[in-house]
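User: Um, any thoughts?
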Amino acid sequence: MHSEVAERADFSSIRYAQCWEDADVLLEALSIQPDSTCLSIASAGDNALAMLSKRPRKVIALDINPAQLAALELRVAAFRELKHPEVLALIGSVESQYRADLYRCCRKHLSAEARDYWDQRPRMIQAGIGSAGRFENFFRIFRTRVLPLIHSRRAVEQLLTKKSHSERQRFYETEWNTFRWRTLFRAFFSQLMLGRLGRDPEFFRYVEGSVAARLLQRTRYAFTELDPAANPYLQWILTGRHASNNLPFALREENFEVIRANLERLEWRCCSLEGYLETSRGALDAFNLSDIFEYVSAQSYHRILRALTRCARPGARLAYWNMLVPRKRPDSMAALLRPLTNLSDSLFRNAKTFFYGAFVLEEVL
């Protein structure tokens, strides 16, 4: 199978320097066991590393973008070489003046290709590798150029302060949800701006309706129904850092040693999902598929789903996200896949990566 998205989009630089899918949701959904063999879209590596915390037999991380694998490699090297606070410093979760030194400590663990990539990008290292992606730069522009036109730093701090549900609703409606907020949000998070500055125009080929309106609605949910004070993804979007007590799963101190102890169970390959499935002879138990299906046509999506079931053991789980394009198992595959709708909907209601429209979990029959 050819890769539809690889033929259209540019994959020459890091698009995502962090994984913007809630790993807590992912891990509960996949129910990874010690004998599981797992497949993961690599992206920046955070969620592939999080999967190691369940001590599976193996995690195979795939990406068609060698720059994304350079991001994964450097994370693996950091977990292998550094202490937990130093990993946070290298990522950019906390302030540091010593990131270049930390990189030099990790460099010996990198492949020649990954060393060459990062050696040529000292400014990205110095800024923190978690800010090195196109998507993170989009959030940086919003944070530094757009948000100050709407709300003060004090208002942002208030938003991220612990509140009850009723207090969050009151704050949003009376303090945050201004005409300027709605207007500038819709302008900046439009399909045009997201395609030009954040993602890739080709990623919106199958999107219908207003992107900004849907994202504004989901943002309201995150600010009121969820707790902004406990959301590390929102914390980064609005401040460019993580709070030390509010981190994504793979960066939490309590998960650090178990991930480090299982690094040898992670392998990565530069290839498309379609290419891997064509040659795979193994039986897989868990699939972290990110949101890749909304970048391809429904026909391509269905072909990939069938290929996934051929490479899966009975009972294997497929987890993936819909951001702007609805994708779920078609009725024609009812004999191959069973949707775990109750579980996926329950998990999705509390997902901290609030900009997605759905979380899909399906089980191989």
Summary: The first strand starts at residue 37 and ends at 41. DSSP finds 18 helices and seven strands in the chain. The first helix runs from residue 23 to 30. The chain has a mean pLDDT of 93.
